[in-house]
């Protein structure tokens, strides 16, 4: 056990599906898993271990932001022996053709912050997802006729809708890096996986965009992401 996770050794599966919202973790367990049990509730960061179509899996929340997911994924990999984590989250869409609840698979995450420098004394700002895990997700999407977008994710230190001027952020991005989505966790997940020689992927559903007047509600963000969740779960079989 750790100060952040009360699960015992053996109560966390080798594969973890990781939403940000604890209530979304609860929702996934109740709707998709068989014989699940709550194995962590420290700080109300719920973790459930059960079975999806016979495959053991843990669904655990990460909270919001890189510091939060950085703690939980590090401990899952290093303390509990987790081999792969698929983040299932919400994001802002940066392509005009995207609609609400379109699904994005992150190929790589860009961050202008210093997570890598602080954790590992490395001046790194661009990190790839695990290619093998992404291939499985891509193949599953093709097999199940699920449309996905693929590209670079901007991983931010603050909610992009609250930025004073998001265009100034885009002007600072190095040439050749063109994000198609924005969220707040993927870089830390990918980087921790790299440091610990583990696997990580990130699936996202679009919940807001500068090209769309409507923003997904809190309820929709909690329960309206079933296609993405199903894609993640089917990809681990």
Question: Characteristics of this structure?
Answer:
Rossmann fold; single chain; globular; 32% helix; 237 residues; 29% strand
Task: Explain what you see.
α2 (66-78) runs parallel beside α6 (186-195) and α4 (131-143) crosses α8. The protein has one domain: Rossmann fold (3-Layer(aba) Sandwich), CATH 3.40.50. It has helices at residues 22-32, 66-78, 115-120, 131-143, 166-172, 186-195, 218-223, 226-235, and strands at 15-18, 34-40, 47-52, 55-60, 84-93, 103-110, 126-128, 148-155, 179-183, 199-209. It is an alpha/beta fold and 237 residues long. The chain is globular. The protein has a five-stranded mixed β-barrel with strand order 5-9-8-6-10, surrounded by four helices. It is built from eight helices and ten strands. The chain starts with 14 loop residues before the first strand and ends with a helix.
């Amino acid at each position: 056990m750790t100060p952040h996770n009360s699960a015992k050794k053996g109560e966390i599966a080798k594969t973890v599906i990781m939403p940000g919202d604890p209530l979304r973790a609860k929702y996934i367990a109740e709707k998709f898993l068989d014989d699940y049990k709550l194995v962590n509730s420290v700080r109300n960061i719920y973790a459930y271990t059960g079975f999806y179509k016979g495959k053991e899996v843990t669904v655990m929340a990460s909270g919001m932001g890189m510091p939060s997911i950085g703690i939980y994924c590090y401990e899952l990999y290093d303390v509990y022996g987790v081999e792969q984590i698929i983040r299932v989250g919400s994001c802002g869409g940066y392509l005009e053709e995207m609609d609400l609840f379109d699904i994005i698979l992150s190929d790589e995450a860009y961050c202008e912050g210093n997570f890598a420098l602080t954790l590992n004394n490395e001046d790194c700002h661009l990190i790839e997802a695990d290619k093998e895990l992404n291939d499985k997700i891509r193949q599953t999407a093709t097999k199940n006729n699920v449309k996905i977008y693929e590209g670079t994710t901007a991983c931010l230190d603050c909610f992009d809708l609250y930025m004073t001027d998001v265009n100034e952020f885009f002007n600072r991005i190095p040439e050749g890096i063109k994000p198609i989505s924005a969220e707040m966790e993927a870089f830390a997940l990918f980087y921790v996986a790299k440091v610990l020689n583990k696997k990580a992927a990130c699936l996202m559903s679009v919940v807001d965009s500068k090209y769309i007047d409507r923003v997904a509600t809190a309820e929709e963000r909690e329960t309206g992401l079933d296609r993405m969740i199903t894609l993640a779960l089917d990809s681990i079989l």
